[in-house]
Amino acid sequence: MAISHFYPPRRTLMGPGPSDVNPQVLAALAKPTIGHLDPLFINLMEETKALLQYAFQTQNEFTIAVSAPGSAGMETCFVNLVEPGDKVIVCINGVFGSRMKENVIRCGGEAIVVEQEWGRAVDPDAVETALKANPDAKFLAFVHAETSTGARSDAKALCALAQQYNCLSIVDAVTSLGGIELRVDDWGIDAIYSGSQKCLSCVPGISPVSLSAKAVAKIKARKTPVQSWFLDQTLVMGYWSGEGKRSYHHTAPVNSIYALHESLLLLQQETLEASWQRHQTQHEALKAGLLDLGLEFVVPKDERLPQLNTVRIPQGVDDATVRQYLLNEYNLEIGAGLGAFAGNAWRIGLMGYAAKSENVLLCLAALKKALS
Amino acid sequence: MAISHFYPPRRTLMGPGPSDVNPQVLAALAKPTIGHLDPLFINLMEETKALLQYAFQTQNEFTIAVSAPGSAGMETCFVNLVEPGDKVIVCINGVFGSRMKENVIRCGGEAIVVEQEWGRAVDPDAVETALKANPDAKFLAFVHAETSTGARSDAKALCALAQQYNCLSIVDAVTSLGGIELRVDDWGIDAIYSGSQKCLSCVPGISPVSLSAKAVAKIKARKTPVQSWFLDQTLVMGYWSGEGKRSYHHTAPVNSIYALHESLLLLQQETLEASWQRHQTQHEALKAGLLDLGLEFVVPKDERLPQLNTVRIPQGVDDATVRQYLLNEYNLEIGAGLGAFAGNAWRIGLMGYAAKSENVLLCLAALKKALS
């Protein structure tokens, strides 16, 4: 195999993530590497914590970036919080809810599933029924923004239920952080994880995580050690703490943290509210155009994510042919369906830096060509 | 906290890693992000596999990069291979051997420890005694290049023992890959992991892993599921396979793979043999200068790693003061001691791109100033 240097084309990324990375973030990424124990890097980690606290709208002291993708962020929450025998109510309305269930099982927990139709929000009434029926449940886990379907669940209402029934909440915010309203402290979220490569428009590979004081207390009171050494947050706490002597745990992905820091700084400069509004505005423009093209949304209007638009593929249109055409002719990536939606839906992302007018126009014009 | 853009200084990284990253690798890192399911990215993953096979000197079909740091590479090997009750002979001659033991325990395995003085190679005779005494042992695990001490163990001899006593070998090559001779197939290594940020001179955050056919067969025959979903290689196999339809597992750290691909390509262009020789040559020059300064090596001559030189801190010299002086005056990072060596030894790295004459001169001149 003759291998040479890799020169990727400049794509427009309008799938379910990774989204287009802001050029300022790419520039930050390529700055010279310094040591992960360098005082300047330790300070950068402190700043990154503060910026993450802003993005999550939390004062949680335990707010860090896991040195691995969102899937590892999910596992971090489950593997630290759930002990063998713990009962977890898991809401499944797409791929990532199922993955939560898988995590619970691998931790030795018991998963009580609240199943929901794909493409719909989690139903708070069904959740309350499950909470009533399982007074010994310790956790309620759900996905805020289901990346596989484009459905938005009411995180505020679900977390209020969790509190009412004395459960800790575990929330998947991989696709929601930065794109739609999310208030960790106001809503009483206990454990939350996200990804760098969606509405933060950073490179993939990092997973922001925040834990409430109650969640940290549950971890500290564990009777059994966390089964993962790499994801054991009782060890990582010492690594992300700026106070006193930092204890070595693993080598942080230094350059990826440069990029995350820059992307979070850009978000802070824009402000969260402006970012949420921008996603909504671009979504409205895209939606109008998609409806004009005769495409139908999978998710009911009130449950749609602005940053991820899932539409049914019209009868007689071949999924792969269209996506290849968009990629080859216009360097435009849109997402295929996943799971139950494979082959019959497209997922069109408007995430972070990609949520802008020129992308909406390009996507609509290119889809029109593809479908004509 | 007023936070602004981060502009790191240009350090010379001569600690235990991360090492200086080749500017070509940083340039590759910052190329535009494409989708992780883009055909061009899938092809890049195939090329990266082939380049990793060269670096490891293996034909192993299962040769991939774990989307997380070397610690996760270690956990990948243990969590997939070791089932509850499995007996593992673990050689401990530094921090990373201890971490292997911790991994075995968290997988529910039984660790039989062969303890060795810090700063010395693993003793094959002691290992053989342990193998004889434990005929039911299934694995022999050891660190090829102990990053905490600078000691090099005889991986070839140890793997021959593993085969003789019907054990699979698990080898930590985090600091050895690219820096010293390492031949996975010739030596019969069954599971090996490394890191991107040592002698490959890539950014931290990625962990190359290779598994022999025997190791893959052991994983496929597991009676219990792998406790980690994120690191479950039965799922990852489908993600790194170029044949047929790739199954989605997680979002690959696209830009980090660009960087790894470039660093491995540079290694292939230089050739492994030339890289090993370069590390040895620069080590000889550094060693002569360090001895001239009156510094003593911790590790006996025949057991030293050229890429990681551990020397005793002279009496009356304050560890932190010297390291801060080097960093502040010359932007030069050398490593502190770890574990038993904290406060009484320095670890001077000559890894990958950092293994060059100008670094040797700078380090010796700066140390001379610091110690005078």
| CATH C-level of the largest domain in chain A | Alpha Beta
DSSP helix fraction of chain A: 40-55%
Please give the most extensive interface between any two protein chains, plus how many residues each contributes: A-B, 81 and 80 residues
- CATH architecture type of the largest domain in chain A: 3-Layer(aba) Sandwich
What's the quaternary structure here? homodimer
Number of helices of chain A: 13
Question: What does this protein look like?
Answer:
The structure is a homodimer of 372-residue chains. Chain A is 41% helix and 15% strand. Chain A has 372 residues and is an alpha/beta fold. Chain A folds into two domains: 12-18 and 272-371, Alpha-Beta Complex (Aspartate Aminotransferase, domain 1), CATH 3.90.1150; 24-268, Type I PLP-dependent aspartate aminotransferase-like (Major domain) (Aspartate Aminotransferase, domain 2, 3-Layer(aba) Sandwich). In chain A, strands 2-10-9-8-5-3-4 form a seven-stranded mixed beta sheet, with helices on both faces. In chain A, strands 1-12-13-11 form a four-stranded mixed beta sheet. The longest helix of chain A is centred in the C-terminal third of the chain and has 21 residues, at 272-292. The radius of gyration of chain A is 21 Å and the shape is globular. The model of chain A has no long low-confidence stretch (mean pLDDT 96).
